[in-house]
């Protein structure tokens, strides 16, 4: 049995993960990191703790859907007690991202801003289309529920990175995050990444390629959070058998 710990267990994703881990064959729910208070029932033997180090002691793999500061603490503590980490949180600073890279030198770490199989494939398609339709303008729009705190979504930024990569560009230098007022005409290389928020939208990403006379839009819509929790569980089962390194969901899916 693989012992699983969850960071962010009281969140929207945490609720699905607890249920899905308890249902999954070959996995044992060993511990939950709880920042405040747990409101769902779990078996008595599950460790419930606000200490990352205590959680790490009882787990073979940790799945993290939380907040950047919590993931930072997780990586810092995991460097003292290396454990496989599946990281799904988004909205990291450069420092927090570097910390994840450092952790991956000591343990297997799988980081993906989106745990769905559809987005794993879409990243590759976006890079291919970007490289092939070189004259087309690229624009990215994401839509999420009203509670999401980071923008644009981690997935939209990842898709932007793949789009930029297809053209040999760096997203940080070509990204536009808003347009308002007399801003002038669109420049050739810019890639806008725009965020819309409302209602209960689980996650919707559209990468558009626009030219004179035609346009192509690639869209992915997640209709259930179980897509992400089950994707993360598949990743955890795969990751426990890997050596130290930084992996993505594409490595786990073999695509
Ligand atoms: N990669 C993917 O496929 C996906 C990634 N995500 C990402 O996962 C993250 C969580 O999403 P979601 O569940 O909707 O968010 P929620 O806000 O519902 O949950 C966040 C969780 O993190 C906990 N938390 C917040 N701050 C801290 C802290 N300082 N220390 C410890 N725990 C903390 C919260 O605890 P408390 O309740 O006590 O505040 C809560 O359990 C987001 O970054 C989101 O973008 C979401 C879906 C898919
Ligand atoms: O916060 C969410 O809900 C989601 N976050 C991820 C992101 O920021 O890309 C993935 C998914 O779209 C849902």
Commentary on this structure:
There is one protein chain. This protein has 255 residues and is an alpha/beta fold. The protein is 36% helix and 26% strand. It is built from nine helices and twelve strands. It has helices at 12-23, 52-57, 68-78, 94-103, 117-132, 154-166, 171-174, 226-239, 249-253; strands spanning 2-7, 27-33, 47-49, 61-64, 84-87, 108-111, 137-144, 175-176, 191-197, 203-211, 214-222, 245-247. The strands form two sheets. It has a seven-stranded parallel β-sheet with strand order 3-2-1-4-5-6-12, sandwiched between helices. Strands 8-9-7-10-11 form a five-stranded mixed β-sheet. It is elongated. It starts with a strand and ends with a helix. Bound molecules: NADPH dihydro-nicotinamide-adenine-dinucleotide phosphate (NDP) and ligand LZUJQKHR. The ligand O=C(O)C1=N[C@H](C(=O)O)C[C@H](O)C1 is lined by residues 90, 113-114, 144, 148, 153-155, 203. Ligand LZUJQKHR binds at residues 90, 113-114, 144, 148, 153-155, 203.
List the helices and strands and how they pair.
Layout: E1 2-7, H1 12-23, E2 27-33, E3 47-49, H2 52-57, E4 61-64, H3 68-78, E5 84-87, H4 94-103, E6 108-111, H5 117-132, E7 137-144, H6 154-166, H7 171-174, E8 175-176, E9 191-197, E10 203-211, E11 214-222, H8 226-239, E12 245-247, H9 249-253
Parallel strand pairs: 1-2, 1-4, 2-3, 4-5, 5-6, 6-12, 7-9, 8-9
Antiparallel strand pairs: 7-10, 10-11
Helix pairs in contact: 1-8, 3-4, 5-6
Bound molecules: NADPH dihydro-nicotinamide-adenine-dinucleotide phosphate (NDP) and ligand LZUJQKHR.
Active site: 144, 148
Protein name: 4-hydroxy-tetrahydrodipicolinate reductase
Binding site for NAD(+): 8-13, 36, 88-90, 112-115
